[in-house]
Amino acid sequence: MRSLLRDTHGIVDLGVVLMIGIAFAALMVFAYIIFTVRDQLITTTTSGQTNRSIANITGGFDDAVNLLLVAITIFILAIAISALLMLRGR
């Protein structure tokens, strides 16, 4: 029974990891939608200035998503390391 009480912190950490995983998947779906829309908006028939504006917007979004995904990955790694240290009893 005592080991079950100690492992409840691991369950909470797993919930956090699942929420971050869901956020990760949602960002990927959102990025797919944005780039699908970009491919439909940037065509040879629209003006060059419009194409550059759309490319700047989607490029900035791409950079923001990459930064968020790196931050989420580092956070998941930190949780995994803390869980391993907790299991070792330190």
Q: Please, could you describe this protein's structure?
A:
By secondary structure, this protein is an all-alpha fold. Helix content is 89%, strand content 0%. The chain has one domain (2-88). The chain is built from 3 helices and no strands. Helix 2 runs antiparallel to helix 3 (48-88).
Total number of strands: 0
Number of domains in the coordinates? Answer: 1
Strand residues, percent: under 5%
What is the C-alpha radius of gyration, as a whole number of Å?
Answer: 20 Å
Which range best describes the helical content: under 10%, 10-25%, 25-40%, 40-55%, 55-70% or over 70%? Answer: over 70%
The coarse overall form would be rod-shaped
- What is the H-and-E element order? HHH
Poorly predicted ranges: none
By oligomeric state, this entry counts as single chain
Major sheet attributes? none
Question: What key attributes describe this structure?
Answer:
0% strand; mainly alpha; 90 residues; rod-shaped
